[in-house]
Amino acid sequence: MPTLSRLFLALALPLSLSAAPGFAAAAQKHASHAHAAPAIVPASLPADAAQEVQQLNADTATPELAQGDQGPAVIRAQVLLDRAWFAPGQIDGHFGDNMKQALLAFQGAHGLATSGKMDAATWQALAQGQAPVFATYALQASDTGPFEKVPKDPQEQAQMKVLGYESPLEELGEKFHSAPQLLAALNKGRPTQAGQQIVVPDVGRTSTPQGVTALRVDKSDKMLYLLAQDGSIKGAFPVSIGDNQDPLPDATLKITSQVKNPDFRYNADLLRGYDGPPVRVPPGPNNPVGVMWMELSKPHWGIHGNPEPSQMRRVTTNGCVRLTNWDALRVASVVKIGTPVEVQS
């Protein structure tokens, strides 16, 4: 029976050596972004998921953290930022630039010194009244498949009914805002079968910010901010944006429509790097615009999800503003048609 640990090992192996057919696609998709498991979580963890959660949550240390740090304390900080709607991108146990930008935004929004480090004051502000960050989760039937590899060729994608998840870890990673490698490291040896208890970052303990009246896309730091009427920041999310060939203009735009689970149309006249015939591909989390599309008043441009959460702020787009799928859904939940979107350099 396939296990999460076997999938993690497959991430580092040639595709032909992967442990199970259903996991091969995830191995190929995430291998270039894998981190070594011992650097993320303790090398020895209980086999029982509940006991593992108890052990992980017993560690309540609040060390000062800076970019480059890694480990369970970083995971805790990332979960707390994610709950507060100051998203670090994928939760992966590594203090990278995405986490630093989220931390700077949180500190500025809460009147703290903008050090870009997890210092004592920031720990206190983030952790106040918060529940422990690790929890158990019982795998559902939908978490165990069936899964299907999504071809890269748009013509082949067009023949599919849905551009769904390719593996259990991809699906669980989006559900828990986490890197597949982190989930694999937390659950070594556990089978991916319905009813199995696994250990996950508990990202569900969150409250939706109130009073969001506008969005701001800052091209200099590649972040999208939720703004209140007085200009205060209610949340922040890492984004990928267009480069100099497809720049989003400095302007105040508006959201003109919202579509959940959109399809996508490849059009060589609009997409740099695509020279094939026009083709429509079906909806799904691996659709090029992910699970949510918020159209902007600039024709053909929008704010949307995407199937590569590990690449936030690291790649350029054809002009649109990309979020992780889960962050696109969160942003869409607090805006409406007509919400202004300020774009600034």
Supply database-style keywords.
disordered N terminus, eight-stranded mixed β-sheet, single chain, Muramoyl-pentapeptide Carboxypeptidase, domain 1, 12 strands
Placed side by side, the strands forming the largest sheet appear as 5-4-3-12-6-9-10-11
What coarse outline follows from CA principal-axis ratios? globular
Put simply, the count of helices is 10
Q: Strand share of the residues?
A: 15-25%
Gist of the model:
With 345 residues, the chain is α+β, with helices and mostly antiparallel strands. It has 10 helices and 12 strands.
Structural description of this entry:
The protein has ten helices and twelve strands. It is globular and about 55 Å long. The termini are far apart. The strands form three sheets. The chain has an eight-stranded mixed beta sheet with strand order 5-4-3-12-6-9-10-11, sandwiched between helices. Strands 1-2 form a two-stranded antiparallel sheet. It has 345 residues and is an alpha+beta fold. It is 25% helix and 17% strand. A hairpin with a 4-residue loop joins strand 4 (223-228) and strand 5 (233-238). It has two domains: 1-207, Muramoyl-pentapeptide Carboxypeptidase, domain 1, CATH 1.10.101; 212-344, L,D-transpeptidase catalytic domain-like (Beta Barrel).
